[in-house]
Amino acid sequence: MEKRITIDTEYITLGQFLKLAELIQSGGMAKWFLSEHAVFVNGEQDQRRGRKLRVGDKVEIEENGAFIISDEE
Question: Please, which domain of life does this record's source organism belong to (predicted)?
Fold first, then answer.
């Protein structure tokens, strides 16, 4: 089951997503998290904390599950 992460802006960055998904406590932890975990955005591995995520994007993180970016709850 995919968890929904709701945004009310055009996009969020991968670093912001990690905080919204409660995978990290602060934005400063994003670089470390991305270096320690395999993160896939729409099926492609991506380690850039500035990567823009838009509604409909799917983020998969090994051992943490799958998330979908949504504009409604």
Answer: Bacteria
